[in-house]
C-alpha cells in the first residue's frame, strides 16, 4: 500500500483567471481541498513554505486548521526553511498543531530552496555564526528543534513562579509524544539523504535533485532512497523510517484536462542550474489513464517510496484539484498502490 497525498505551493495572484486571488483565498481553499481529498480516500495534505512571496508562508495556523477540520489524513509541510525558524517557538507551534490533529503531523523541514529576496532569513534576525554557511545555520536550528520536541528538560524554573511547576528542569510545552519520529528532511542530493538517515529523519525527496549523475531522474532518486536506507541501517535506529517522492501527475480524462495539460504529454527530465548547482528536474506525467499506468509502473523512485505527494496547481481551484487527485487515486488502484 502506498500513501497518496497532495502538495500545494499555495500560489495566489490578483488575476481574473486565478481561483486564488488573495492570501485569504489560498488559506481557505487549502482547508477545503484537504477536506475534499480526505473524503475521496486520499492520505495527506502537505503545504510548501515560501517567505516574501505570494505563497503560503506561515504553516502552523493552516496545519492546525486542517487538523481541526479533518479526521484521518496526514498533514504536513514540504518543506519549512529552517534558516528562518526560531527552533523553540517552532517546537511550541508544532506540538500544538500535532495535538490538535491527534498526532497526524508529518513535518518536512530542510535548508529550503532559492529565496525570493537576498538572505531573507537575516530579516527574521537569524544570522550564520562566524565561518558558518546558511546551510549550516539551517542544520544548527534543526538540531536544536529536534532536541526540544523530543521532550528534553533544560530550562531552570523560577523559584517564585506565577503558577506551580512540576519538579526538575522544564521543557517546551505543549509536548506531543511521538512527533520526533514524524520529522522529515527535504534532501536535494544523495549526500544529504545519507545525512538525514544518520540524524534519524524521514526522507522527503521532490521533483528536483541538486546533482546530475547522467541518469534518468527517477533512477537517480531511487538511488538516493537506497543510500538513505543503507545509512539508516548503519546508524542503528530502532524504528522504521518513511520516504516520500513528489510528482506532477495529470490523468487526461476530460477536455479540461487536455486543455490544461495536454501539451505536457511529451515532458521529459531537464538539467539546469539552480542556486549555482547543476540540478536534475523530474518530468511531468500527463497522459490518458491507461498510458499513465504504464509510465508510472516504470518509475523506480515511486516504487521505492512509501508515500507519493502530488504537486497540485492550486490556482485552478478546489474542485479541479480534487478531480485531479481522484483520477490519480484511480490510477493508483490499477497499479496496486491502494
From TrEMBL:
Residues annotated as domain Luciferase-like: 9-257
GO MF entries: oxidoreductase activity, acting on paired donors, with incorporation or reduction of molecular oxygen
Family annotation (Pfam families): Bac_luciferase
Any Gene Ontology CC annotation: cytosol
Protein name: Luciferase-like domain-containing protein
Originating species: Kineosphaera limosa NBRC 100340
Source taxonomy: Bacteria, Bacillati, Actinomycetota, Actinomycetes, Micrococcales
Amino acid at each position: 500500500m502506498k500513501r497518496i497525498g497532495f502538495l500545494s505551493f499555495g500560489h495566489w495572484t490578483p488575476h481574473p483567471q486565478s481561483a486564488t486571488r488573495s492570501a485569504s483565498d489560498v488559506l481557505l481553499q487549502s482547508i477545503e481541498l484537504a477536506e475534499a481529498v480526505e473524503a475521496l480516500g486520499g492520505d495527506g495534505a502537505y503545504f510548501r513554505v515560501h517567505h516574501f512571496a505570494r505563497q503560503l508562508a506561515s504553516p502552523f495556523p493552516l496545519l492546525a486548521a486542517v487538523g481541526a477540520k479533518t479526521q484521518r489524513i496526514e498533514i504536513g509541510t514540504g518543506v519549512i526553511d529552517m534558516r528562518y525558524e526560531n527552533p523553540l517557538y517552532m517546537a511550541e507551534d508544532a506540538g500544538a498543531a500535532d495535538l490538535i490533529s491527534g498526532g497526524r503531523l508529518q513535518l518536512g523541514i530542510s535548508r529550503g530552496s532559492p529565496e525570493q529576496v537576498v538572505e531573507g532569513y537575516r530579516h527574521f534576525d537569524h544570522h550564520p555564526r562566524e565561518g558558518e554557511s546558511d546551510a549550516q545555520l539551517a542544520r544548527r536550528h534543526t538540531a536544536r528543534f529536534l532536541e526540544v520536541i523530543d521532550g528534553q528538560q533544560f530550562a531552570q524554573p523560577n523559584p517564585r513562579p506565577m503558577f506551580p511547576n512540576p519538579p526538575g528542569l522544564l521543557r517546551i510545552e505543549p509536548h506531543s509524544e511521538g512527533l520526533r519520529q514524524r520529522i522529515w528532511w527535504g534532501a536535494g542530493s544523495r549526500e544529504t539523504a545519507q545525512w538525514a538517515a544518520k540524524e534519524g529523519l524521514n526522507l522527503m525527496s521532490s521533483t528536483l535533485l541538486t546533482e546530475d549523475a547522467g541518469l534518468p531522474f527517477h533512477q537517480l532518486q531511487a538511488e538516493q532512497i537506497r543510500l538513505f536506507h543503507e545509512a539508516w541501517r548503519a546508524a542503528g535506529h530502532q524504528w522504521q523510517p518513511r520516504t516520500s517522492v513528489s510528482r506532477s501527475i495529470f490523468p487526461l480524462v476530460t477536455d479540461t484536462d487536455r486543455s490544461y495539460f495536454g501539451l505536457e504529454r511529451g515532458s521529459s527530465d531537464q538539467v539546469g542550474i539552480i542556486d549555482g548547482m547543476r540540478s536534475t528536474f523530474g518530468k511531468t506525467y500527463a497522459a490518458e489513464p491507461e498510458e499513465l499506468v504504464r509510465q508510472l509502473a516504470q518509475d523506480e523512485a515511486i516504487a521505492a517510496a512509501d508515500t507519493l505527494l502530488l504537486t497540485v496547481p492550486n490556482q485552478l481551484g478546489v474542485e479541479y484539484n480534487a478531480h485531479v487527485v481522484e483520477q490519480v487515486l484511480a490510477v493508483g488502484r490499477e497499479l496496486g498502490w491502494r
